[in-house]
Amino acid sequence: MLFSEILGLKHIKSYLTTSAERGRIPHAQLFVGPNGSGTLPMAIAYAQYILCQNVESENTGGNQACNIKFDHLAHPDLHFAYPVATNDKVKKHPTSDHFAEEWRTFIKENPYGSIFDWYLSLGIEKKQGQIGVDEALDIVKKLSLKSYEGGYKVMLIWMADKMNIAASNKLLKLIEEPPEKTIFLLIAEDEEQLIQTIRSRCQVLHFPPLGEQVIKEALLKTENITDNEAQKVAHQANGDYSKALHLLHHDGGDDQFEDWFIQWVRTAFRAKGNKSAINDLIVWSESIAGSGRETQKRFLNYCLDFFRQAMLLNYGAQDLVFLEPNTSGFKLEKFAPFIHGANIMDISAELQNAIYHIERNGNAKIVLTDLSIKLTRLLHKKSS
Fold first, then answer.
1. How large is the C-alpha radius of gyration of the chain?
2. What is the percent of the chain with per-residue pLDDT over 90, rounded to a whole number?
3. pLDDT over 80 at 323, yes or no
4. Does the structure show a pLDDT above 80 at 200?
5. Any idea where the domains of the chain sit in the sequence?
6. Among 171, 324, 182, 314, which residue's Cα sits nearest to residue 247?
7. What is the pLDDT of residue 185?
8. Which of 22, 322, 368, 376 is the most buried (most CB within 10 A)?
9. Domain 253-379: which topology?
10. Which are the contacts of 384, defined by CB distance < 8 A and separation ≥ 6?
11. Is the pTM of this model over 0.70?
């Protein structure tokens, strides 16, 4: 993957190429950025720049055979680790090597894809993938071998924040003191989920969301759409190129999430002093609990965004509002006055608590029912 194929982020490209040219390559780096910001393609391009000894800032001019290997993601000194789980193909002790072919296809087709897109490609969208101790043992084994081509070895760990404690402890010493000419590139969306001892051993590079104009230009270049369509989608994507593609092709689940959300808040509004509406909230909770945990977490994060957008509109920050509900009879302008400074912090806290408990295998029906009853009280809270 070439730097020229990566959207925006010129300052990060410049920093990475300059540090490599000066021989100042940290042995462990952590790329932190929101979904769709380009952390994964940037890490692959950086690894290609180093391993192929490319000499131009756009990542060309080096070893041609090496660059061809990277085109197929088949360079012997580039290793990957990523979250996995058991599926119909792998019944126990899954590791990244079991899904190498699926991984290459995923990167070629959707390099900006989310963790949920990856789970969908493996058929494990109802499970929570992780990087476990079996993966850590594989990493230790791979990096104990000499470099195939006599230069650097690169271990790229995607979604390192999905690494469990056992795997983290197993890799801690290796990340602190790796073999000679071994580079760790860790990628995470939430660095706080990584144990502190690993974070402290990495040089951290933060990626901002992509600019609206950058996404618009990319859509005009790759998709057969008008300028106005590209502008609208780029605005709604909120810096996430993967989300922009899903919005354009209507395959990201947001339409379903909007239906769930609007049904939820309408029922919560009616539920104050209304027993039948409370029963409707319980039925709603049972319905959402029937989806996978990853879907539940994505939906609750969607709700967070929805409430924040309503608050921004309520306080007159229209330029920051990108959400445009499509449900007939629902207007964000009419909903916005109910979300204000007196309840937004409590609503956000309750949603984050729900995500926390679902991540840790709490009973989804109980978690969502509790959240719904609390929302009923919070939506009726008066603005101070």
1. 23
2. 34
3. no
4. yes
5. 3-208, 253-379
6. 324
7. 95
8. 368
9. Zinc Finger, Delta Prime; domain 3 (1.20.272)
10. 341, 342
11. yes
**How far from each other are the two terminal CA atoms of the chain, in whole angstroms?**
53
**C-alpha distances in Å from residue 18, one per residue of 14, 57, 234, 342:** 6, 9, 31, 48
Distance CA 254, CA 22 (A): 45
Grouping H, G, I as helix, E, B as strand and the rest as coil, residue 253 is coil
Tokens of 153: 């070895």
Q: Give the Cα-Cα-Cα angle 247, 32, 165 (nearest 5 degrees).
A: 110
200 phi-psi bin (left φ>0, alpha ψ -120 to 50, beta other)? alpha
pLDDT at 57: 62
User: Please, which residues have CB within 8 angstroms of residue 53's CB and are 6 or more apart in sequence?
Assistant: 62, 63, 66, 151
Of 322 and 187, the structure prediction assigns the larger pLDDT to 187
pLDDT value at position 79? 93
pLDDT of residue 129: 87
pLDDT for the residue 346? 93
Q: At what angle do helices 364-379 and 254-270 cross, to 10 degrees?
A: 60
CATH number of 3-208: 3.40.50.300
